Fold this sequence. Notes:
The protein is an alpha/beta fold. The protein is built from twelve helices and seven strands. The chain has helices at residues 15-28, 43-46, 58-63, 69-72, 91-99, 106-110, 129-137, 151-168, 188-200, 214-221, 226-229, 234-249, and strands at 2-6, 33-37, 74-75, 81-84, 118-122, 140-146, 174-182. Strands 3-4-2-5-1-6-7 form a seven-stranded mixed beta sheet, sandwiched between helices. Strand 6 (140-146), helix 8 and strand 7 (174-182) form a beta-alpha-beta unit. It is globular and about 50 Å long. The model has no long low-confidence stretch (mean pLDDT 94).
Amino acid sequence: MTVITICQRKGGVGKSTATLNLSCVLAEAGYKVLIIDLDDQQNTTKSISKIVETDKTIEDLLLKEDLVLNEVSVKTEWNNVYILPASGNLSGVVKHLDSELGGHLILKEKLSSDLFDFVLIDTSPSLNILVINALCASKYMLIPLSSKYFSMQGLSQTLSSFKKVTDRLNPELKLLGIAVVNHDKRNVLANEVLEQIRSKFKDEIFNTVIGINIKIEEAQVKKQSILTYAPLDRGCEQYRELGKEILKRVII
Ligand SMILES: Nc1ncnc2c1ncn2[C@@H]1O[C@H](COP(=O)(O)OP(=O)(O)OP(=O)(O)O)[C@@H](O)[C@H]1O
Ligand SMILES: [Mg+2]
């Protein structure tokens, strides 16, 4: 299983949107994909309309020792896409993991099976023990970015967290890349920021840039992926291109 954490310390840049759409793109390419929603805002969970009734969430998986991955992952309406839903109150889980010896490694233990080709983990902007769990369980970290000026600050915080995790906790973790997922090309300042990011992170930045696109936002509201909501739209094409670049970079 190739586990990828979608991580960015700045809020609202498009983490959840990218997690969902990239999962659907990978599934379309024939891979079996699990989305783990590790954010108690539950945005990704709520962006999927027909989660088959389940009373189990990520909270159960992390707290109940004998519970295994296939008992909590739920099939979505999209072929090959599964979700492990978030729970609305993860603060109890955070407390429990904080006090447990090796509490940052529970998710890694639970992901030791080979049930899926890819696992994409959506995280919250705050760096709590849930995000640490995700990064310890992952082979890759993907950083989504908007080309807004303040996102550079979020990027340096995120890279510094990445370094601490690779130095201290998971030396296997690799940076899969930095993806601009919310770019307004009519905005001069945003274009300047994009150029700065491109020159500073030549190897890390993906060539594909996802533009600001109302269809992408609408798809999320309508509980769909861009693939089903607007399959002919430019945004869909861009997410497919980004998916192709990701497949070229990962070692499965
Ligand atoms: N390319 C895009 N074009 C237009 N809107 C977008 C695009 N990508 C994401 N959005 C919108 O931006 C908003 C924030 O996106 P999203 O919820 O994915 O961010 P996030 O990083 O997960 O936020 P949080 O940090 O709160 O979890 C949403 O309304 C989403 O629909
Ligand atoms: Mg989110």
